[in-house]
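User: For a benchmark we're assembling, each entry needs the component sequences followed by a predicted structure for the full assembly. Here are entry 17's components. Please fill in the structure.
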Amino acid sequence: MNTLIRQTSMQMRLFLRRKDELFWTLAFPVLFILLFGAIYGNSKWEGMNIRSIDYLLPGIVVMAAMVTGIMRTATGLVQEREAGVYRRLALTPLKRTTLIGSQLLQHYVVIIVQTLLLVAISGAAFKTNLTGNTALFWLTLSIGALCFMSIGFALTGLIKTLRSATPIIQIVYFSMMFLGGIFFPNSLLPTWLGNAAKVLPSTQLGDALRAVVYNGGGIGDIWQKWLIMGAWIAACLIISIRFFRWE
Amino acid sequence: MNNIIEVTNLEKKYGDINAVNGVSFNVEKGEVFGILGPNGAGKTTTVEMIEGLRKPNAGTIKVCNIDALKEPQRIKEIIGVQLQATSLYDNIRVKEAIELFGGYYAKSIPAAIIMDEVSLTEKKDSQVSKLSGGQKQRLSVGLALVNDPELIFLDEPTTGLDPQARHNIWSIVEKLRERGKTVVMTTHYMEEAEQLCHRLAIVDQGKIIAMDTPDNLINKAELATSIEFSTSKELDGLAKKIPGICKVNNGSARKYSVSTKAVSRILKDLTNLCYDNNIELQNISVRQATLEDVFLAMTGRKLRE
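Assistant: Structure for entry 17:
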């Protein structure tokens, strides 16, 4: 347990030292919420009972969780694998499970910080007001975070070299972002595409979060969304076990 | 038995290639054991199997009487390893890295002592990516020492380093040797092997072709000594009187070399010849065979090609 905490906090220190990563994980989502808030103000999209900015906030939370969960996890793992870090660590008594645990924990903490930051800034700037069951909100977000991180691990297993990492990760990230109802409701997509996009965890997480914070949704309303995210986690776990390599 | 490593019939195949092909050797406690050979000879593969990084296809490995193939986790606690590549988080600081690694072991040496030992105290707050090649390598060696291991593996510790940095690493190894640590090091520099190692295994194409002390390896090979000199006048026809003499054709005139096992005899004949003919001997040098020559004689190839 001590080793897990030490490893996690060291990874966190190394993360905080990288200006570019701080920008993409913390500043970038905040800039997005400020930008969209400025564009849409208090306007509403047709057929919606909440303001556009209210819709966007959970969406940007999902986007931020994807930046950390998918992009940071996969890029970091591929980079460190290629640098031989894990090969060197394999010569020490540090256990693989501790190393995996520290990766999950470190990124999870960043996702929590991102979310708190977005909710606070959006609340101050645009008076967005998240109601609903707080515990259910965090639990749902945590399932989503775990889902994105497992996608990050699975991608690392499928990516062979650092050179191919960026394009592959970007494709996954952008398709989950634009088809996942982050910036606009999927009802605005062509029906077939909107339906297809329902399998994406980003869609499910965004819908579940909105159901909880605006419609007073309970477990009965969102369990199916948890289940779909759970299926993604299971699938990614299988891919990771089959393909993940430490060197 | 005072063996800290016992390796028997170790084999590793990559596809059809036998990277390591039936290697057996023992390393005694307190010994600096060198594995000398050209690139691709199987040196790194051999040590990485002992360290637990690679699984052999056949053979047995015992480290401190522990079966390394059955209990790799126990081996990790008691060995220290420096890999060929630095292999660290690029933005970790020197002191942080040493402390982080120290935390992985049941017992560890304080970072300050390690930094002092590898002369990195002044660099303790520098990030790894800002270190020079020699400093990175010293850190790498330092990390191999954090758990105060009895047995230390150094894989080509000085490859790619400038002479100054190489000597720094050598003095660290010499200190370890004085303290009675067991060191297994691979190298393709014969000077390094001659200077640091008590005993050497010469490896070629996955096999040990010779194993002994550096001096014995050279003496047993019974190689010719090479004598080189210049003369104040051309020897011309007189040269015939010295058997085995050759003219050195590197542009400079009146330069000769003789390769011989009868050094005193040739020197006597040579000095007599020159004295009698009023010729002055210049720049005379006598060069004994080195491990490089031993390797060349055994394999027909050079160590570094």
